Amino acid sequence: YFEVNSDLNQFSYSDNELTAQQVYIQRGCFCASVNPVPVSVGSITGTKLPNGTWDIDISISLEWDEFSETDSRTISGIFSAQ
Predict the structure, then answer these.
(1) C-alpha angle with apex 19: 16 to 23, nearest 5 degrees?
(2) Residue 33's pLDDT is what?
(3) pLDDT tens-digit profile of 16-66?
(4) pTM of the full predicted structure?
(5) Per the domain annotation, does 54 fall within a domain?
(6) Rounded average pLDDT over 3-13
(7) How far is CA 36 from CA 8, 25, 43, 55, in A?
(8) Is residue 3 part of a domain?
(9) For 65, which of 13, 25, 35, 72 is 20 to 30 Å away at the CA?
(10) For residues 78 and 31, which has the higher predicted lDDT (pLDDT)?
């Protein structure tokens, strides 16, 4: 999860900027620990569309602490603000 200033029409964050923006990912599983993990490697870009939704591209890498497991995620799609 992450938040974007509602005044923006586009954004682009990468690597250390992800940490500054407090970007986190959380597993949805029956794992021993499902605590959110900060994201500090990769990029997230978005453009606000005329109907108020966002076209977002995410490409990140992270390490799940409890497993010392490196994971990569790539997500692209149209999202609405909550």
Answers:
(1) 130
(2) 62
(3) 999 888 888 877 776 666 778 888 889 999 999 999 899 999 999 887 666
(4) 0.78
(5) yes
(6) 90
(7) 26, 5, 18, 24
(8) no
(9) 13
(10) 78
Task: State the total domains in the chain.
Answer: 1
Q: How many CB atoms lie within 10 A of CB 46?
A: 19
Q: Across the chain, where does the E strand assignment appear?
A: 10-14, 24-25, 37-38, 41-48, 54-64, 69-79
Domain containing residue 45: 10-79
Residue 74 lies in a domain: yes
Residue 13 near residue 5 (C-beta atoms within 8 A): no
pLDDT band at 1 (very low <50, low <70, confident <90, very high): low
Give the total residue count for the chain.
82
